[in-house]
């Protein structure tokens, strides 16, 4: 039996990138960084990469607030956007829905749980928008390396902002590098004043990439939707691929198109794993 004060949640994922989803529309909730840390902790809490809070929106079907498992609040999450779009489509009975985030208003088309397409908006390549700590005229490859000066292990990443900051290192084999070791060093490198999501990308054809990501504030994840968008536009911008690619992530494929209108379209699945309730004292600030 559930107590009226308990807080319902959903556990969802997009290609294994997983989320605790709270609904603050009927009952306002205030999430402190330590709440997100506790919920995200796979040993102490439910365990997830991000905590997502659904809020009411004046402009869209729903507003989505995003917290990384380290408690930091961020502006974009591609995989969670598909999850929230799926819920909004089920609630409204419409296949075309909109999701507002702190990065902007995103339109979504839901053709069932396995084919959700999000218009992720326009990428930004300007160093100040990424942001980088110092001017770079060309962000297709910025001066940054890991390893010995004369034989770097990883070097010259592309940098791009797709609602959040990304650096993409081009490699011959995404599995040949210890991303779990280099990821935290690069995420916190002083060149990234807001930290960054760090990816290894391997071009496998004109229409396909392999990608592994160390996420800012979450670590190694099975999939990162915004990283797939960032890698796809960065690869096309370097002339390595066409503008329509399949991005193979450890959790499965995402289909990315950098459309002629400069918007990025991301298509993939979303899954509801289970629903549950949190005890009222789980959140450090009492539910409002
Ligand atoms: N998993 C997400 C990205 C979540 C936010 C990211 N870690 C950041 O700090 O910017 C995705 O699917 O895009």
Quickly describe the structure.
By secondary structure, the chain is an alpha+beta fold. Helix content is 16%, strand content 37%.
Separation, N- and C-terminal Cα atoms: 23 Å
Give the mean pLDDT: 96
DSSP, total strands: 19
Named CATH architecture of the largest domain: Roll
* Annotated CATH homologous superfamily of the largest domain: Diaminopimelate Epimerase, Chain A, domain 1
Radius of gyration over all CA atoms, rounded: 19 Å
Count of folded domains: 2
Helix content estimate: 10-25%
CATH topology of the largest domain: Diaminopimelate Epimerase, Chain A, domain 1
Ligands present: the ligand N[C@@H](CCC[C@H](N)C(=O)O)C(=O)O
Q: Given the C-alpha coordinates, what overall shape results?
A: globular
Secondary-structure-derived class: alpha+beta
Low-confidence stretches: none
Number of helices: 4
| Largest beta-sheet characterization | 17 strands, mixed
* Beta content: 35-45%
Give a topology summary.
Layout: E1 7-14, E2 17-23, H1 33-40, E3 50-55, E4 62-68, E5 73-74, H2 78-92, E6 96-101, E7 104-110, E8 116-119, E9 145-146, E10 154-155, E11 158-161, E12 165-170, H3 179-187, E13 197-205, E14 208-215, E15 219-220, H4 225-237, E16 244-249, E17 252-258, E18 264-268, E19 271-278
Parallel strand pairs: 2-3, 4-6, 12-13, 14-16
Antiparallel strand pairs: 1-2, 1-19, 3-4, 4-5, 6-7, 7-8, 8-18, 9-10, 11-12, 13-14, 14-15, 16-17, 17-18
The site of the ligand N[C@@H](CCC[C@H](N)C(=O)O)C(=O)O has 18 residues, from helix 2 and helix 4.
């Amino acid at each position: 039996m559930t107590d009226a004060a308990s807080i319902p949640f959903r556990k969802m994922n997009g290609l294994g990138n997983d989320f605790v989803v709270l609904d603050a529309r009927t009952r306002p909730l205030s999430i402190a960084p330590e709440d997100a840390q506790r919920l995200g902790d796979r040993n102490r809490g439910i365990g997830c990469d991000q905590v997502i809070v659904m809020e009411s929106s004046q402009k869209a079907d729903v507003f989505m607030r995003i917290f990384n498992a380290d408690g930091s609040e961020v502006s974009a999450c591609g995989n969670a956007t598909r999850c929230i779009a799926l819920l909004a489509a089920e609630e409204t009975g419409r296949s075309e829905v909109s999701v507002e985030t702190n990065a902007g208003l995103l339109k979504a088309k839901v053709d069932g749980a396995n084919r959700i397409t999000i218009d992720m908006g326009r990428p930004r390549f300007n160093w100040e928008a990424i942001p980088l700590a110092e001017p770079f005229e060309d962000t297709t490859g910025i001066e940054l390396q890991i390893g010995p000066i004369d034989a770097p292990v990883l070097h010259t990443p592309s940098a791009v902002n797709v609602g959040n900051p990304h650096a993409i290192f081009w490699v011959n084999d995404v599995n040949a590098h210890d991303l779990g070791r280099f990821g935290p060093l690069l995420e916190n490198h002083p060149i990234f004043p807001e930290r960054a999501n760090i990816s290894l990308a391997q071009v496998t054809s004109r229409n396909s990439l392999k990608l592994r990501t160390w996420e800012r504030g979450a670590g190694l994840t099975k999939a990162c939707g915004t990283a797939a968008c960032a890698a796809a536009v960065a690869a096309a911008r370097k002339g390595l691929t066409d503008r329509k690619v399949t991005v193979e992530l450890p959790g499965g494929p995402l289909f990315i198109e950098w459309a002629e209108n400069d918007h990025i379209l991301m298509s993939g699945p979303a899954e509801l794993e289970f629903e549950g309730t949190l005890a009222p004292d789980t959140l450090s600030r009492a539910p409002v």
